[in-house]
Design a protein that fits this description.
Largest sheet of chain A: 4 strands, antiparallel
Number of strands of chain A: 15
Oligomer: heterodimer
Structural class of chain A: alpha+beta
Shape of chain B: flat
Largest sheet of chain B: none
Number of domains of chain A: 3
Helix content of chain A: 40-55%
CATH superfamily of chain B: MetI-like
Number of domains of chain B: 1
CATH superfamily of the largest domain in chain A: MetI-like
Radius of gyration of chain A: 29 Å
CATH topology of the largest domain in chain A: MetI-like fold
Mean pLDDT of chain B: 83
């Protein structure tokens, strides 16, 4: 069993890496790179060589290519000034670059130029994976002006009075802490770095775009390490190291150390949080509707309950989900429900009702049909005949004997549904303009936000892989008869 | 004795009688059609589906509708005409007839859905039959399947469309490039069930070559399974196409589809609701009719339902 899980895990990781590699190569090589500037408004500010530099710098940031400007080429030169103006050194250094596979592109001014090299596919993949996982450690911070910086871990109490593991010398002050938000214990040791988002959410890291709160900042009363108590939006648990040269008097007023670069508390949940909130509630509604419905249909097979259920299921499968969503929205309007989520926002219960009902109903059809199938399959088995022979009532047989066995395959799907809630429902979120992760994917595709597409691909695929594995494992827990390692027959 | 014999007469021995088989005449396809046409709902849906499919392929040839061509764009009185005798479905925000636009869109949606279904099922059945039959291929294919099946389908289609660009061939490719694996896996399981049955083992003992085993022993058993798979795929692909075009990464103006129409007209949902609801109703109508026809056909093609 352990061997099986390990094998499965390795396969899952390979599968994620494989998908990601293909996506990276396709996104970076098949989409014309000029296209990413389509929605960049700051492009109009530049002309001539400045424009060329701007574009190449963006491509370099996004990991398309390596790009060295004259200042970079001449950095190793002894007489820098003559080199930057196209002196003899310059030509030698450029020739040196050219032997390493770079191409020389002259500027419009005709004096100098720059060298550039496109990354081949394997280098794109290597660059991505080598930068992906970032482990915070006490030697992470380099600050020339703060020589006495301690480099150690220590236990302290956080801003909310709970114990926390903090670190001096790490990028993040708090490495491990507890607060009232799900999942209650948080860590800053390992972080995933997918690079910067561009052109939408410009300047932010893609993970931060997805994970950070949205909307307005919220100020709460809190005490800072220096003893000052004031209303502030800063979330002290997110504080990162700030270089001594950039510290200002506001920072020194609140903090006793260099960890002053904090994120703000926001009024609305993050994109992941929003999708998760919707997903979980909708999931509960779906199971509450679908399981009793499936059981009822199986119990009254070929009678009106069953026929009605089959009509419903067929309707849900056949009608395009978009048509169904709009139909439901139209009905919702008769009850004065808002058309889009942002109309009333996070604060109003009304904005949740319609999307939740639609999300739940969309997933009921398959649940109902499988529940009914499993129940009916089980109802022909010997133990049911035996129970009937013992004189048990139909109700008892169905609710106590058959349900227990029929629920096993359903259990297999639960982790999948729970984990996939995070990725949200692309369709419903798009139609209702819910600021969640599901809507993010089509949005970033339309905005040609390559980094974001890759980030979301990673998250969605990783979640799907994990959920399948957890589902299978859970099934063996529920029913010990099931063995995942069993050899199948056949030729 | 003689009185008894009077009541009997001698009959001539019929030489051919022993040659006849006593079972009633059975034809597979005849039974399928008899079974199919016994359902009234299915007949109605078949008529609707046929009319819609035929009209959507014929009407655009005569209307000469071209979504890139907007002759009435500057004539204000041609905009937003409510459905009437001349313009059955009214006109849209640039004065084009919605009737023409809907049929044109339906045609493109159907082209995408039917092509993707055809590719998925043909490839899926061929690969699935070989996959289910050969142990060597099974180990390789299972690994591939395990990798591919982990990827959320919607994500894959969206990334493919992102990379390949928008258009009908790209959409068909994106929809069918991995979905055939699901069908193939489905078929593989069925083949594995059938291949170890006695009749097939007997047939193999008698030296039937592999291709004949696959086409004559196994394929007939798979027909109802394949029809079920097709009946499920067509509405699914229509739904995907409608959705992708709706969120703006499916088809473009020149190959406008039902999803594209829904997306373009969604701002007029309250002001000119017919513009929005007619394409929505069409997408639902095609899916439902094709789904019900497919389901009934799938039931009818299962030989177990032919016993009277």
């Amino acid at each position: 069993m352990k061997r099986y899980v390990l094998g499965r895990l390795i396969r899952s990781i390979i599968s994620v890496c494989f998908v990601l590699s293909i996506t990276i190569v396709m996104v970076y090589t098949m989409i014309p790179r000029e296209k990413i500037f389509q929605t960049d408004t700051s492009l109009g500010k530049y002309k001539g060589d400045a424009l060329v530099n701007y574009k190449y710098n963006i491509w370099k940031d996004l990991g398309y290519l390596d790009f060295v400007q004259p200042s970079g080429i001449c950095a190793v030169s002894e007489n820098y000034n003559s080199c930057v103006n196209g002196g003899a050194d310059f030509k030698d250094l450029v020739a040196d670059y050219e032997t390493r596979g770079y191409t020389y592109v002259p500027y419009e001014n005709g004096v100098t130029g720059f060298v550039t090299r496109d990354y081949p596919a394997y280098e794109l993949i290597w660059n991505f994976f080598s930068n992906l996982i970032e482990v915070d450690n006490p030697w992470a911070v380099q600050d020339a002006e703060n020589e006495e910086l301690q480099r150690s871990y220590y236990i302290t109490t956080g801003s909310n009075g709970m114990p926390a593991v903090a670190c001096s010398g790490c990028k993040h002050k708090y490495q491990l802490y507890i607060d009232s938000n799900f999942p209650f214990i948080h860590q800053n040791v390992i972080s995933l770095d997918f690079g910067l988002s561009y052109p939408t959410f410009n300047g932010l890291e893609t993970m931060d775009v997805i994970n950070d709160g949205q909307g307005q900042v919220v100020q709460i009363e809190q005490t800072f390490p220096s003893g000052v108590t004031q209303r502030s939006a800063l979330n002290q648990y997110t504080c990162e190291y700030k270089q001594t040269s950039t510290l200002d008097h506001l920072d020194t007023q609140k903090f006793t150390d260099n960890y002053a670069n904090c994120k703000n508390y926001m009024e609305s949940p993050s994109m992941v949080g929003t999708s998760y909130l919707f997903g979980i509630i909708a999931l509960i509604i779906a199971y509450v509707i679908a399981l009793p419905a499936g059981v009822t249909m199986a119990r009254h097979k070929d009678r009106w309950q069953d026929k009605l259920g089959i009509v419903y299921v067929n309707f849900m499968i056949a009608v395009p989900s978009l048509a169904f969503i709009y139909f439901a929205k139209w009905i919702g309007r008769l009850f004065q429900m808002p058309e889009k989520f942002p109309e009333l926002g996070f604060g109003d219960v009304k904005s949740y009702i319609l999307p939740l009902i639609i999300l739940a109903l969309l997933s009921t059809s398959s649940l109902i049909i499988w529940m009914r199938r499993y129940m009916i399959d089980q109802s022909n088995s010997d133990y049911v005949k035996f129970a009937r022979a013992k004189g048990l009532s139909e109700k008892e047989i169905f609710n106590k004997h058959i349900l227990k066995n029929a629920i096993i395959p359903i259990v297999n799907g639960i982790p999948q549904s729970v984990i996939l809630c995070i990725s949200g429902s692309v369709i419903t979120e798009s139609v209702f303009a819910i600021p969640g992760m599901g809507k993010m994917l089509p949005d970033s595709i339309k905005a040609l936000n390559n980094r974001m597409v890759i980030t979301l691909t990673f998250i969605f695929t990783a979640l799907a892989v994990i959920s399948l594995l957890v589902g299978d494992l859970l099934m063996t827990v529920v029913d010990p008869r099931i063995q995942l390692t069993a050899k199948k027959g056949g030729k | 004795m003689t009185t008894m014999d009077d009541r009997f007469t001698f009959v001539k021995v019929d030489e051919t009688a022993s040659e006849h088989i006593s079972a009633p005449k059975y034809s597979y396809w005849q039974s399928v059609f008899r079974r199919f046409f016994s359902s009234k709902v299915a007949i109605v849906m078949l008529v609707i589906a046929t009319i819609v499919i035929l009209t959507s392929f014929i009407q655009p040839l005569f209307s000469g509708y071209d979504p890139m061509n907007m002759p009435y764009i500057n004539q204000r009185d041609m905009w937003f005409i409510r459905p009437n005798a001349t313009y059955w479905f009214g006109t849209d925000n640039v004065g084009n007839s919605l009737f023409d636009a809907v049929w044109f869109g339906t045609r493109n949606s159907l082209i995408v859905a039917l092509s993707a279904t055809a590719i998925t099922n043909i490839l899926g059945v061929i690969v699935g039959m070989i996959w289910g039959y050969s142990k060597k291929i099974d180990t390789v294919m299972l690994e591939i399947y395990n990798v591919i099946i982990n990827i959320p389908f919607m994500l894959l289609v969206m990334v493919m469309m992102y990379v390949l660009g928008r258009g009908i061939p790209q959409l068909i490719f994106a929809l069918s490039c991995t979905s055939w694996l699901g069908t193939a896996y489905f078929i593989r399981v069925q083949v594995m069930i059938i291949r170890d049955r006695e009749y097939n083992l007997a047939s193999q003992c008698l030296g039937t070559p592999l291709h004949r085993v696959l086409t004559h022993n196994i394929l007939p058993y798979l027909i109802s399974v394949i029809v079920t798979s097709i009946a499920r795929d067509v509405p699914n692909f229509i739904s995907y196409e409608v959705f992708l075009s709706f969120i703006g990464i499916g088809l473009t103006t020149e190959s406008s589809s039902l999803g594209y129409l829904i997306q373009t007209y969604s701002p007029f949902m309250t002001s000119a609701s017919y513009l929005f609801w007619i394409p929505v109703a069409f997408s639902a109508l095609i899916s439902v009719s094709l789904y019900i026809v497919g389901q009934t056909l799938a039931d009818a093609s299962d030989p177990r339902t032919h016993m009277v």
